[in-house]
Design a protein that fits this description.
The complex is a heterotrimer of chains A (225), B (239) and C (44). Chain A is 84% helix and 0% strand. Chain A is mainly alpha-helical. With 239 residues, chain B is mostly helical. Chain B has helices at residues 4-26, 40-67, 70-102, 110-131, 137-165, 179-223. The chains are: A mainly alpha (225), B mainly alpha (239), C mainly alpha (44).
Chain lengths: 225, 239, 44
Amino acid sequence: MSTVASLTRATLAKDLRLEWRSKDAINSMLFFSLLVVVIFSFSFDPTAEESRHIAGGLVWVAFLFAAVVALNQTWAREMRNQVLDAYRVSPAPPNALFLAKVIGNFIFVTVLQALMTPLFIVFYNLRALGPAYQLPIVAALGTWALVVNGTFFAAMSLRTRSREIMLPLLLFPISIPALLAMVEATGAILTGEFSARFWIVLLAAYDVVFTIASLFLFGFVLQAE
Amino acid sequence: MKRVFPILAVLTGVLLSYALYEALVVAPTEQTMGDVQRIFYYHVPSAWTAFILFFINFFASISYLIWRTTKADIVALVTAEVGVVFCTVVLVTGPIWARPVWGIWWTWDLRLTLTLVLWLIYVSYLVLRRFSSSGQTPLLAAVLAVFGALDVPLVYFSIWFFRTQHPQPVIGGGGSIDPRMLHVLLINWLAFSCFAALVCWSRYRLEVLRRKVDETLALEALLEPRSSQTRTSRTGTAG
Amino acid sequence: MTYLYAAYVATWAIHITYLGTLLRRYARLRNEIAEFKGRIAEKN
């Protein structure tokens, strides 16, 4: 077990360091996120009352787009340098690599969200009428849900034609319960009309189920040749 | 084997015709909805059949992951395809039913929404099978099927709770059902199940033949490298 | 009720379309087999 943890940490540190040095992916993604927020704000211009109801949906669709862009390049670096083949023949547990990628993506998408959220608040004059402390919980659970499955499906899409479209095509249907939960929870917290507790529990259950499933099945996907 | 099929096909045709007659003529007219309610006899059995097919797909996929048999892979492919066909029927008849009864085309009815999500998951499954290179298609598809199956209870609960917070019309009538209607429903379900079984069987044989031909052509290309014709043999799953 | 007939017709339209694709794939397979047999016969 300790090899998995240390290997995960090493791979994650490597990814973060590489990303920090080159900054190419994160810069383009930052700008993309900004564009998404602005375009959404042009398209949907509701009053403050209505906006609290639909903001949940808008925000999470925007986050979803940003996440897909981030996920699509998850394995790009590994593909370019045949790292995956090296990993396949090494005795290293595949879960470590997977976990490192998921955590890396999680950090990545969370950074994007942290930058997009103030913009949304500004454009839509958002203010939480319900328990605002639940929002980071929903954000974390929801992001993990998208990122764990997204990283897995990105790996599955590697040897398919139309790789970039394959990922969202596989990810979106499976993510529907999680997306519903994220949107409803955010809406519930912003409007204060319902309790978000059920949705938070559902998100947590979703995360547990699919994290275990991904860890269990990633070995198969890596070995698939 | 070959002689049994036409006989079964005729029998199924007879059964389907009888079931249709029962649905249109014999079944009592519903009080509130009138004759439109008879769509129920096609809508619900198709949904049950689709769910059963996807259930079989789940077991075939797990079986493939454990034992890696070609048979399991083909069963998975077949049940997914035919399941999607029946799912499409549910998704088309649902709105056609909802429109005259409720005045709206779509509602987040539990069964209808669940069917929609299953349809999406399995269409993505079929797309994955078509777009991945034939070497690891069965493995990746099996993994995706497992993910889909794990998703189903979560989808169910999320829609169920969504409906308690945002009440919506219920298609397909909840509550108890007139025993005569139940009788007609079960007859139609039996007929469609036989039909589904026959279609699956045909698709299965088609796939087996397809793969044999692909193998043979591939062998031919290997043994005759200087052959002048360019043979592009399709991968087995694209059919 | 036209909606009722529309539903039933749509159901069978979907099924017949799918069966049609199966038949077309069978036909294509049979062509490929016939071609292949032709090539074998040519060589012998």
